[in-house]
Here is the input.
Amino acid sequence: TVKRKPGIQQARMQLPVCAEEQTIMEAINNNAVVIICGETGSGKTTQVPQFLYEAGYSHPDSDNPGLIGITQPRRVAAVSMSKRVAMELGLTEHEVSYQIRYDATVSPKTRVKFMTDGVLLRELAQDFLLTKYSAIVIDEAHERSLNTDILIGVVSRVLRLRAELSKEDQEKVKPLRVIIMSATLRVSDFTLNKTLFDKPPPVLKVDARQYPVSVHFNKRTPDIDHVTEAFKKIRKIHTRLPAGGILVFLTGQNEISVLCKKLRKKFPPLSPKASARQRAVEKEKEALEEKKEVVTAKNAEVEAEDLELGEGEIDKNVDLEDFDFDEDTEDEEGFTDEEEEQEPDAPLHVLPLYSLLPTAAQLRVFDDPPPGTRLCVVATNVAETSLTIPGVKYVVDCGKVKERRYDSTTGVQSFEIGWTSKASADQRAGRAGRTGPGHCYRLFSSAVFDNEFEQFSTPEINRMPIEGVVLSMKSMNIDTVTNFPFPTPPEREHMAKAERLLAYLGAIDSDTKRVTELGRTMAMFPLSPRFSKMLLIGQQHDCLPYVIAIVSALSVGDPFIKDYHLDDARPGDSDDGGSDNEDVARREVKEIRREEVAEKERRKLARRMYYKVQTKHAGLDPTSDILKLLNVVGAYEFAGATEKFCEDNFLRPKAMDEIHKLRGQLTNLITTNLPGVDVLVDPRMCPPTPIQLRALRQILAAGFIDSVALRADLASAGAAGKGRKFKSTRGVPYRVMWSDEDAYIHPGSVLYHDSPPEMVVYQEVFKASRVWLKGE
Ligand code: ADP
Ligand code: MG
Here is the structure.
């Protein structure tokens, strides 16, 4: 029996799931799978494991002696929830434990184990029957993270196996209980999926008390960045509105750090009367935030956190110093004139919250704020459903989310900040109504919400390249991926194609379709398998620094401004730099009086300079767009990585900066995870030698082994054919591997102006009125 402290017991009884304890346990005892839906904060994560524990699960002498396992898509939730449940049960961290990729408290005495879904997936690779466990709780299923989806698929099979084996020998094998928990009612992908569960599992709805939340949209969606806008809104709330915690949703670590710093500067966390000791304590606590987690290949795997690592982090150059502190006169929804802005009578207790923040700093959000202060938590999505922060009355929502995107034709992944879904914006708003009526301030207009927000977020599996998914499943020894019961299956043809590509890359055996040693190593990198392959074979002739630069550039995307956007980029307008000739030309342009002519001339000039730059960077190898990319990355670092260089070379500064960061990260991953491999961290590189250039072309071809196009005349002439002679590539058709349609070399390629090569390795094929090839 469990003896809880009276305060804890009382707080539990307020939680909606506790009213349903009996119903929930009955359903679990009578069904192999049960789905529990309940509003965030209703007590699912903290209480359901305790119900299981009290019902005898995990007790050595019971019918269900195995561990109670609870999975989370986020490390932060696994750690903090295990601590909370241990405390509520009055047990130690060796009994209620957690395990995340690089940290664990598990012991032989562990009864309840919180872990990330990635950890359980890896355990499945060792022990497919999950023999250690009597019950598995899969939490936050509504998030539809890739690992959760795959986990639900795998576990549906484990269930059947365990049931069959236990029929054969009831003493030795016990059936497994599975509980899927979701913060929303949108679970039909699981319940109605026949390949997943033979008969639809029961869905238990927990009615949560939710106070009304008034939603206030901005009149207009501001063009200034949302961090500045959030700052303004917080300032208004804090200076004008009654007591109550503020929860702010931003997209990533950088934005959060910037905003916290600014808020702390504007509203010091302690009153002027605070003692020196109080100040020292506060300083010490803030210092908890500074400890950085080390990024290794292992923890850079496909966990939700990784979106916060700064991959593709949009550096908005948020500079609030410039920000206009004058009150805007425009009246605003949610604020009336009576509410004069006044000196706030309470200090603002500002806390950041994101997954990579050290645990000790994260847990501060659950502490009561110092007496007389107002709590203000600045968080990522992690506060949307994973963690419930007590006492929140106001929510400020930027409406954005950083998401992994995937372009299935180019195979290139990106991390982009875009609008979140209506469902998730409503989740965020709901956070304001836990303890009483609340307010949600949306930093965008209702028109944007109505017209530009999707109803629901896309499951991660559809935002991921399939070959990456397939490779990680194979590295878990799930071999027949095409039969796998995905909650939302990718297309069959896509999966077969992914397997073919993996076989070409040597990641899986082409006959057995099983993962190879090389494949296992490739699975470590948070990259498309073709890029991982290039990195792993990139060590020959000291090419690795170049391969890292190329892979980074390809992953980020083409940094060159497209020539059809030339009219926006006006390098001709800047007065310094450029060669003499250009200066002369520029001066000539200025002298032309009539504006239209000048305009036309200016465009012509810009275009001329644009092509000049393109030719300059192709100097390394005039037949390769990708080596042109390498050249520009090298030249950029050499010039000191300046905006000026970007402007002069028609480059997007943001893209160049992202490439720079990714290079650092990949270099780090390789040095920490491939023993014996030494790569220079120095971003500057000497240009490659001719031997290295040849090696690089081979490495590229190995990575893009499925992306080779043959000139159509040679393809039809057969091996003996000589093919025709061409003067230019214009209109010369090529055959690609995955399509019957002819493709043509893109006018933007350095190849376009030369005679057409017999074979081309291409990175992307895209469709316009024609199918274009762009590549090597
Ligand atoms: P759900 O999983 O349904 O979203 P939880 O079980 O996470 O709900 O939370 C139930 C309640 O417990 C919430 O009101 C939350 O504020 C509180 N809670 C959770 N973790 C902690 C903690 N570490 N410290 C204090 N309160 C907590
Ligand atoms: Mg929860």
